[in-house]
Amino acid sequence: MTPPTPTGWTRHAPLLFVLLWSTGFIGAKLGLPHAPPLGFLAMRYALVVTLMAAAALWVRAPWPQGVRAWGHLAVAGLLVHAVYLGGVFTGISQGLPAGVSSLVVGLQPLLTAVGAGWVLGEAVRPKQWLGLVLGLVGVVLVLSSRLAGAGLDLHTLGQIVHLPGLPAALIALLGITAGTLYQKRFCPRFDWRTGAVAQFLPCLLLTGALAWTTEDRAIDWSSGAFVFALSWLVLVLSLGAVGLLNFLIRSGTAVNVASLFYMVPPCTAVVAWALFGEALSPVAMGGMVIAMAGVYLARK
User: Fold this and answer.
1) Helical segments of the chain, H only
2) Pick from 140, 143, 137, 125: nearest CA to 255
């Protein structure tokens, strides 16, 4: 199916998605010190389900028709949200440096390109493969300063296999990759409000059950940073960025969508520099240029 010609705001949807998705680290940075990771995510999902259900009922949005439609949306939601976010948050809470987590998850565009031909029948052109490789190189350069802060560098990446939290990050990588392909294959169209309920409700049930049985349920509700982080993740990430992601998956190829994730670490580095004063080295800035060139080739 040929993607529709971009018009109006849709031309800027990829850029807006990258900007919003890149701020997800704000929620993790501010919220995780005050709540266990799975409990934090369960509260996030509960608020999203409540808000989207109310919005859907208010405007009488169409609900998915039949058990199969609900099932496909549930599987896609569990992979993209519960498995991916649960893996990332758990890995970071177990001591995995955020830079390493970003590097592991940064393999997603390449894995998606491999699976796109097998699952979706999409042809990946040589120029796109070149763009995907360049994008990964750019991401590694952007994250090099964070790797150094974790006691690692580009010559000692073999140490990563011994880091705590790495299995959780790998599970997150598989979740976001499989979820993108699954949603593109089995959930071509759905209302964004009722679809959010169908996707986040099973995430709430699964994550809530795991949080109840495996975590300390102590949450510091008195922390303003925690309340802000939870609000940010619900409104900006789960409603804004995820809504844009669903739109992009529906209207473009899997490789085009996945390549956008290469721009997340560079954009995150700029936001971290602006908000928290984190260093932005010349190597990182060079990596940003390479990553942008790679995404341009991959999406061309």
Assistant:
1) 13-21, 24-31, 37-59, 66-77, 84-93, 98-105, 108-115, 126-149, 166-186, 192-214, 224-232, 242-251, 254-259, 264-276, 282-299
2) 125
Tell me the pTM. 0.84
For the chain, what are the domain ranges?
A: 18-125+161-253
Residue carrying structure tokens 């392909």: 181
**Cα separation, 284 vs 3, whole angstroms:** 33
Q: Do 174 and 181 meet the contact criterion of CB atoms below 8 Å apart?
A: no
Per-residue model confidence as pLDDT tens digits over 187-246: 878 998 999 999 999 999 999 999 999 888 788 888 888 999 999 999 999 989 988 988
Residue 54: count of CB within 10 angstroms of its CB: 12
CA atoms within 13 A of residue 24's CA, in its CB half-sphere = 22
Q: What is the spatial distance between Cα 250 and Cα 245, in angstroms, rounded to a whole number?
A: 9
Residue type, position 198, single letter:
A
Q: Residues in the chain, how many? A: 300
Structure tokens at 231: 């609000």
Q: What are phi and psi of 218, to 5 degrees?
A: -70, 125
Tokens representing 57 are 């009922």
